[in-house]
Amino acid sequence: MQAEVRGGPVSLRSLGVREGDFGLIGVQAASLQASAQVTLPADGANLAFSGNGVLDQVSLSRAELSSSPLSGIHLAFRGRGTTTLDGARLVLDEGEVALGDVRLQGQGELTRTERSTQTHWSGGVPLASCQAMLDATPRGLVPLIAPLRMTGTFAIHAELAYDSERASDTRVRLAVANDCRIGQISADLSPHRFLSAWQREVKGPDRLPMEIESGPGSPDWVPIESISPFMLAAVLVCEDGHFERHHGFDYEAIQNSIRDNLIKGKFVRGASTISMQLAKNLYLGKEKTLGRKLQEAVLTLLLEQELGKRELMELYLNVIEYGPGIYGIGPAAHHYFDKRASDLSLGQALYIASILPNPEHQHFDKDGRVSVAWTQYLQRLMAIAKKIGKITDEQLTAGLAEQVAFRVADSGGGPPLAANPNPEEGTDTPSELSP
Length: 435
Known about the structure:
16 strands
């Protein structure tokens, strides 16, 4: 038995879609044109399907996508595959979604039983110009970066194999070819403006907005030469072990993050690099939307393209939040340990770096000392710092003897490093080590 349906273009409203359904707005103007073929063999074992279609002039308002409504969406799609009538097994032989001139292709299969779910998928974005990708974004999704002009090409291929009964065997593979560059930069987006003093809005201790001055020459700014090398080592250990070698994105960490989150069945680790965090702090707000993440990615490229690693590290250490209303390593060193950033010990530096994912939550006991559990965590971080060549044996020994305590300058850890040793190997963010 075979059935075929063709129709359109017809407005979504005439298809019964109401204003607000799925976040859709302007449903009268949006249209759908589609065709589909379905074949059911005599034995009725599997249903074969194929189809294609075009959605045009679609507008959306969904908080997880953007704080502003999206409009002008032109989406084409096609697919071919088979499925069992009970939905226990789905095979997609080929599928494609095109947004503008950018295509997302994929194929795979999904098998479900009462006890398990098994799936294997592969696909990605074939080689596309970076400007085409920017042009394909709907109006309202990336307003800050929309005026940018880009050169180069981008492609990504991904593979996933997952079996819920053997989750630890989950395989994730990413292959990324990113040759994007920013060719036209407006003055307000130029990273070079952050190399002198500027004003920015942050949240104060009461979490209300306040204005502060940042940048070289501002009262709380600490040049990188005046920051304890232990602090530089600490953020590499805790936040971005491959910072010195990647170009803004750690694809290995992204791959491992996806795998670990699937294995645990919940979010347990991210893959944001120092450069990505810096882009968010310099340019963007705190909202968790797809639009913000896309803008963060492009702005990360911009920062890495225009500034050197030492400039990026100096900016990062001076603009991020270390606690409610505490911005910059200078104020943080004074607040937590009553000392200058240049004098931080290994344990103190690692404590400060270890709270960056959640700086509102502290780990001091009532007597002011760091808790036993967190001290053990800091000692594991020290071992990682030694393993990747950031500290010497002597500095590790001194660090392990430290008793880090709130507002206590001398924790018994010895003086900071004289120089930053060369790395032997990288490490992912050790979030899985935290208590």
